[in-house]
Design brief:
about 100 residues; alpha+beta; 3-stranded antiparallel β-sheet; about 45% helix; CTAG/Pcc1; tRNA processing; nucleus; cytoplasm
C-alpha cells in the first residue's frame, strides 16, 4: 500500500470509563507506548475526556478491525487489573 491511509471499513470507537481522570490518563500513556503491529493498515487514536478513555481505530478490513479491537481490550484489561492492584499504593508511594 502506498500513499495516504484509506480505511475501507467503519471507524470503531470505544469509550472506557475509569475511576478517575488520572487513571484514564495513565491507561492512555501505558497503551500509547505499544505501536500497532501493522501501522500501514491500522491507525489508532487515543484521547481522554474526563474519566473516559476513548479509542478510535481506522483499519483496512473489518477482520483487522476486530483483531485490533480485541488486542486493545486485552491491553485495557491488563491496565485496569494493574491499577486495581497497585494504583492506590503507587499514588501513596507505599507499594509493597
Amino acid at each position: 500500500m502506498t500513499g495516504t491511509f484509506k480505511p475501507l471499513c467503519k471507524r470503531p470507537t470505544i469509550r472506557i470509563p475509569f475511576e478517575s481522570e488520572k487513571h484514564a490518563s495513565i491507561a492512555k500513556q501505558v497503551i500509547e507506548v505499544d505501536r500497532e503491529l501493522q501501522p500501514q493498515a491500522v491507525l489508532r487514536e487515543l484521547s481522554v475526556e474526563n474519566d473516559i478513555l476513548i479509542a478510535t481505530f481506522k483499519t483496512l478490513t473489518v477482520r483487522l478491525s476486530r483483531l485490533t479491537v480485541n488486542a486493545f481490550l486485552e491491553n485495557v484489561d491488563l491496565v485496569i487489573r494493574t491499577l486495581a492492584e497497585f494504583g492506590e499504593d503507587a499514588e501513596k508511594g507505599t507499594a509493597a
